[in-house]
Design goal:
By secondary structure, the chain is α+β, with helices and mostly antiparallel strands. Helix content is 40%, strand content 32%. The longest helix has 28 residues.
Length: 91
Protein backbone atom coordinates (compact mmCIF):
# COMPACT_ATOMS: atom_id res chain seq x y z
CA UNK A 1 0.00 0.00 0.00
CA UNK A 2 2.82 2.34 0.78
CA UNK A 3 4.33 1.70 -2.64
CA UNK A 4 1.17 2.87 -4.44
CA UNK A 5 1.02 6.00 -2.28
CA UNK A 6 4.69 6.65 -3.04
CA UNK A 7 4.17 6.18 -6.78
CA UNK A 8 1.18 8.53 -6.74
CA UNK A 9 3.12 11.23 -4.91
CA UNK A 10 6.03 10.90 -7.37
CA UNK A 11 3.57 11.34 -10.27
CA UNK A 12 2.05 14.51 -8.84
CA UNK A 13 5.19 16.63 -9.13
CA UNK A 14 5.59 15.45 -12.73
CA UNK A 15 2.10 16.57 -13.67
CA UNK A 16 2.51 19.79 -11.68
CA UNK A 17 5.83 20.46 -13.40
CA UNK A 18 4.31 19.69 -16.79
CA UNK A 19 1.39 21.99 -16.06
CA UNK A 20 3.72 24.76 -14.94
CA UNK A 21 5.92 24.31 -17.98
CA UNK A 22 2.87 24.45 -20.25
CA UNK A 23 1.72 27.71 -18.64
CA UNK A 24 5.18 29.27 -18.94
CA UNK A 25 5.41 28.31 -22.62
CA UNK A 26 1.93 29.70 -23.27
CA UNK A 27 2.84 33.00 -21.59
CA UNK A 28 6.08 33.37 -23.55
CA UNK A 29 4.51 32.41 -26.87
CA UNK A 30 2.54 35.66 -26.76
CA UNK A 31 5.65 37.76 -26.17
CA UNK A 32 7.24 39.31 -29.23
CA UNK A 33 10.40 41.37 -29.38
CA UNK A 34 10.51 44.20 -31.88
CA UNK A 35 13.99 45.44 -32.63
CA UNK A 36 14.52 48.48 -34.73
CA UNK A 37 16.39 47.81 -37.94
CA UNK A 38 20.12 48.40 -37.82
CA UNK A 39 21.34 51.35 -39.86
CA UNK A 40 25.05 50.84 -39.30
CA UNK A 41 26.82 47.87 -40.88
CA UNK A 42 30.47 46.80 -41.15
CA UNK A 43 30.76 45.54 -44.74
CA UNK A 44 34.40 44.47 -44.69
CA UNK A 45 37.52 44.75 -42.54
CA UNK A 46 41.20 44.29 -43.30
CA UNK A 47 43.75 43.80 -40.53
CA UNK A 48 46.94 45.83 -40.95
CA UNK A 49 48.80 44.25 -38.07
CA UNK A 50 48.67 44.61 -34.35
CA UNK A 51 45.60 46.69 -33.33
CA UNK A 52 45.27 48.41 -36.75
CA UNK A 53 42.61 47.88 -39.40
CA UNK A 54 40.76 49.30 -42.37
CA UNK A 55 36.98 48.97 -42.53
CA UNK A 56 34.20 49.75 -44.96
CA UNK A 57 31.20 50.99 -42.99
CA UNK A 58 27.71 51.40 -44.45
CA UNK A 59 25.12 53.79 -43.03
CA UNK A 60 21.89 54.81 -44.77
CA UNK A 61 23.07 53.76 -48.26
CA UNK A 62 26.41 55.52 -47.91
CA UNK A 63 29.77 53.82 -47.50
CA UNK A 64 32.85 55.07 -45.70
CA UNK A 65 36.44 53.82 -45.60
CA UNK A 66 37.84 54.21 -42.10
CA UNK A 67 41.15 53.39 -40.47
CA UNK A 68 41.29 52.37 -36.83
CA UNK A 69 44.07 51.95 -34.31
CA UNK A 70 43.95 51.39 -30.57
CA UNK A 71 43.98 55.17 -30.02
CA UNK A 72 42.22 56.66 -33.08
CA UNK A 73 39.57 56.20 -35.77
CA UNK A 74 39.89 58.25 -38.97
CA UNK A 75 37.65 58.71 -41.99
CA UNK A 76 39.81 58.12 -45.05
CA UNK A 77 37.26 58.41 -47.83
CA UNK A 78 33.56 58.56 -48.59
CA UNK A 79 32.83 55.78 -51.08
CA UNK A 80 30.12 55.41 -53.70
CA UNK A 81 26.78 53.89 -52.74
CA UNK A 82 26.56 50.09 -52.73
CA UNK A 83 25.61 48.51 -56.07
CA UNK A 84 22.40 46.95 -54.78
CA UNK A 85 21.21 50.35 -53.49
CA UNK A 86 21.64 51.83 -56.98
CA UNK A 87 19.58 49.01 -58.48
CA UNK A 88 16.79 49.48 -55.92
CA UNK A 89 16.57 53.22 -56.60
CA UNK A 90 16.15 52.55 -60.35
CA UNK A 91 13.09 50.31 -59.74
Amino acid sequence: MEKSTFSQSSEEPKSLAASLLFRIRAAFSEVSIHRRPRRLKICETLSLGEKRLLAVIECENQRFLVAATAQNISLLQTLSAPKDADEKSEL
